[in-house]
Amino acid sequence: MRRPTALTLVLLALAAAAAAAEPVPGRFGRLADVEFSPARGERIAIPVVLARPARVRLRILSPDGDLVRTLGPRRLDAGRHALEWDGRDDKGTVVPDEAYIPVLELQDGSGARTVIDPRAGTGGEIVPDEALAVEVFRDGLIRYRLPAPARVLVRVGLKQGPMLRALADWTPRLAGSNVHRWDGWDRDRLLRVMDDPRVAVLVTAFRLPEPVIVATGNRRLAYPDYRRLRGWPDPVPPARIAFERDGRRLSPFASLPRMLQRDPRVRLEILERPAPGGRGRLKVRVDIPPEDRWWLEQGLYEVAFFIDGRFEAEEEHGYVPITWVRDVAGLAPGRHVVTVNVAGFRGQVGVRSAAFEVPPGASRSHGAAAPRRSP
Predict the structure, then answer these.
(1) What is the pLDDT of residues 273-291, one digit of tens each?
(2) Domain-terminating residue out of 260, 282, 314
(3) Which of 37, 162, 234, 239 has the smallest number of CB atoms closer than 10 Å to its CB?
C-alpha cells in the first residue's frame, strides 16, 4: 500500500476543513427593531436565510415557552425569505403585549433536522448602567438607551422608604432610545413623590433572546389573563438559576418564568380609623389575590408598613392575609398615608397606599401592635 504524499495529506486536510465549514441549513436574518401592533392589524416579517433548500416550520412561543402559533411547514429554496405573522394565536386571538420567541425548524433533502432556538445562547445578559445612560428630568421624563431588545424594570420610591410605583415591570422594550413619562405620583395618586427630596428612580434591564418579537398595543388582554384563557399550566421556577454565560453576567430574573417576574397585586383595606375622643389607632388588613399569591409563595417574602413614606414595621417571614395596628400617638392631626410593600426575595415588590385622618384629640389606645395573621 502506497503511503500518502505530503501533497495528498494537505489536500485531505483542506477537504476536511471545507466539509467542517459547510454552512448550517439556515439561520434567522436580522429582525428590524420596529413597533409591532397586531391589535391595529399590523403584521411582522420574520427573515429567514437558507443555505440550501429545506422544509421550513416556524413556531411562535410565549415568553414562558408555550406554543402560540405555528407557521408552515413550507418547502423553500435556498436564499432569503420572510415569514409573516399577524400577531394572532392558533385560535385567532390577538396576542397580548409581550415578547414572543420564534423557533425555526429546518429539514433538508437528506432528512436531517435542525432547530434554531434563540434562547439556546442569547438573552439574560445584564445591560450595564453606563450603557443605559439613564436621565431623569424634573418634568417626570425618564429616558434611557438599550443596545438590544431587553426587559426593563423602572421603579420610583423614596430613599430609605417604600417603593411607590412601578412604571415598567420587566416590560419588553426595543433597542434604541426609550422614554417613560411619569406624572410624579405614587401608584394610588396619594403622594406627590416627585416633589419629595428623597425621591429615587431605579432603571435596570437584561437582554432578550435574539431574534425576538415584541408585540404592543393590546389594551384589552393582559398576559396573565391570556394564559388563563388558553388554559396553560402555571409555570414553575427552574431548579437552578444561571448567573453567567461565556463570561457575561446574567440577570437572575431572566431564568424565572414571566409569571414569576412580575410584581404581585396587593389589596389594602383600612379596618379601623382614628376617632376623635376615642380610640387613637389605625388598623389595616393586607391581602393578595389567589392568582398572584401562589407564585409569590414559591419563595420567601416580607410585608413592610410605612406612614408618610417612613418605615414603621415589617413581618420578615411574610404571610397574607395580615393585619397591622398602629397607635397614632406622635402623628400630627390631619391627613396621612399608610403604604404597604410586599417584597419577594426574588425581587418582586407589590405596593398599595391608603389615606387616613388623625382627628384632633384622638387619644392613645393600647399601644402599637405587631402584625398578625387575619382570621
Answers:
(1) 998 866 689 999 999 999 8
(2) 260
(3) 239
